[in-house]
Amino acid sequence: MSGRTAHVIVVGNEKGGCGKTTVSMHLAVGLLRMGFKVGCIDLDHRQQSLGRYFANRRAWMERSKIDLPTPVMVVMQPSSAELKAQAVAQEKAGLTALLDHLSGQCDFVVIDCPGSDVALARHAHVHADTLITPINDSLLDLDLLGRLDPVSWELNAAGVYANLVWELRRERRQAHRSGIDWLVTRSRLSALTDRNKQKMAEILPRMSKVLGFRLSDGFGERVIYRYLFLWGLTVLDMEQAGISMGTSKSNQSAREEVIALLHALWLPRVNERLDRL
């Protein structure tokens, strides 16, 4: 890894349905539109959500004759080894080799992890320069980060995912002598204010100081994020897309959310190029 030049961004969380693929897709396209070379790796060989997203993008480009920025996209395939230990070793070695290869041609590599605790996802975390963890704005999702007292709302213990990140951070420091910048984002935010939303706003900043992550708003609960999948598009493509999606206030707000997340990530050479979006 000492000779690697690409900045590795891992989008991970052990819970499904929190918006990891949506974040990965918009992040990759945002970086491409700023002029960076980007590689993407989908570790979920079964669902292949990010791989399918970019496949839809290539299909729409061919159909509409519109040239959209597209990364180098790779879906990791599972090992065919019969022994589990051998399969895990082969998959880890394959991911390391792929990262080394993409680093030679990319400025950034975005890795979309499955919503479960698998060895390959853990190995990806060890390679992360930046880790993004989207969580839905609910106490159920919050439990993966920390266990709360139901009366005092104080943090009793780290959750299973926070413990995993702590363990993998230590492994990374031992292997690579560098840490992981961990950003937790609140996804699917509702425009309405309720008690749950207020509690999340109170608890997460306190929790971040103990568990060692930075905090940022993510993407709101907007139809446009789900609507664009079939075309392989993002909210950053709407002016060039070739389909009528309107210019509503909600769609403009979605675009601003993506730019705000890119700004919050503190990625090298990114903030100076945000005006290109």
From TrEMBL:
It holds the Pfam family MipZ. It comes from Magnetospirillum gryphiswaldense (strain DSM 6361 / JCM 21280 / NBRC 15271 / MSR-1). This is ATPase. Gene3D superfamilies: P-loop containing nucleotide triphosphate hydrolases. InterPro entries: DNA_Partitioning_ATPase, MipZ, P-loop_NTPase.
